Amino acid sequence: MTTLVVCLDRTDDVGRKTGLRSPVVGWEAVRALVTDVGLADPEDSGVNSLLETLRVAQNLRDEAEEVVVAVVSGDRESMVSADRAVAAQLDELVAEYDPDSAVVVIDSAEDERLVPIVESRMQVDSVDRVVVRQARDIESTYYLLKQFLADEELRQTILVPIGLTLLVFPILATVFSPAEGAAAITTVIGVFLLYKGFNVDELVTGATHQVRESLYSGQVSVVTYVVAAGLTLVGFFAGALGVSSLEDSPGVVIPAMQFAFYAVPWLAMAALTASAGRLLDEAISDDPIRSSYLNLPFIVVAVGLVVRGFSAYFLERQDAIGSFEVPAYEFGVLSNESFAVTAGERLALFVVTALVVSLVGARVASYFSGSRNEGEITDGAGRDVEPKSNSNLPSELTDGGPEREPPRRPAADSSSDPDRGPDSDADSDTEPSEY
């Protein structure tokens, strides 16, 4: 097995400093090249890459492998001509030594771009990247900055805000005070970081795409969502009017309860309208209706009843609203009298009603989903198909009965048995008749 240990030099620094033409092949030739390059430029990292090439070759020789050491260089005219020169030199080495694999030694990111050229001609077992220890941090920082500047998304995310900040801050500091300018810049940067941190851009893009698909597909939920948005605005407006009608009341509990008391009916209707539209879309589509969409309207009503009941309880205890009056009936006729329901009784009534509504919703959802799964068999297009019968199976398998008779042995054929006549009994347990 022959291994080619090759040192790559894309910009031909070795040839430019020593005047030698590449490829340089052989242990002694590369060893002499190290001295020539070191005397020409002791600070060049190419000296370290050449020494690393000799070290790798020596280790492979110690493992009883046949090793060919070579240095391949490009030229400084252009990157295309440099890559073609390296490719031609590699073809010469492959034609002359026919290596089974290669170990590539490089010392920069520029030389690393030659690795695919080597891989296209032979198997590459290892890529040895040489970084001078004294300059390791500087070299790594350079590669990170170069990779960062090559990423378009990172440039737009970090460099663009920094550039805008440096441009806008002097203008704000000139028009206003430096403190106000710094505050405005800090606020904008904070909003931008929150915008990127919570992935608001992806959420907006997904919502826009969903709205576009809904409009093009003609879904009913588009109209119901618009109606629900209008009802939500009405609910907030009604809650704000309810809070404004209060007299000066300390704390925030009573205003919050007043807002919820007047806003919750409208917000519940908004949620109910939106869920009804989504349920209609599911009913129109070919897919079966999921139980969550069937149960959602009942959950909305139940939650609205609970919130309305608790807000009314707190407001009644603070005399912000009056007690609930129930008209009285005498012999089925409405009378002029009525009786009041206490705050606790009203709360219990709302909570019990909410529980009943939620249980009814769960029952309805389970009933429709169960009937859909058990009573219907649909094909891939959502059409109903008849279940296949098991008429071709034995009756004992289709009936599922536990009692089954053991199979009888067939009667012997008289034509195939010379000892049995045509009148012989078919049952093997009986005695044969005498002639």
Overall geometry: elongated
How do the helices and strands follow one another from N- to C-terminus?
EHEHHEHEHHEHHHHHHHEEHH
Main sheet overview: 5 strands, mixed
For the largest sheet, list the strands in their spatial order.
2-3-1-4-5
Number of helices: 15
Helical fraction: 55-70%
Low-confidence region ranges: 375-405, 410-435
**Count of DSSP strands:** 7
Structural class: alpha/beta
Strand content of the residues, in percent? 5-15%
* CA-atom Rg in angstroms: 44 Å
Distance between the termini: 92 Å
Mean pLDDT: 77
Number of domains: 3
Considering the chains and any ligands shown, give keywords for the structure.
7 strands, alpha/beta, 435 residues, 5-stranded mixed beta sheet, two-stranded antiparallel ribbon, 3 domains
Write structural notes for this entry.
The protein has 435 residues and is an alpha/beta fold. It folds into three domains: 2-141, no CATH class; 152-198; 218-375, no CATH class. It is built from 15 helices and seven strands. The chain has a five-stranded mixed sheet with strand order 2-3-1-4-5, with helices on both faces. A two-stranded antiparallel sheet has the order 6-7.
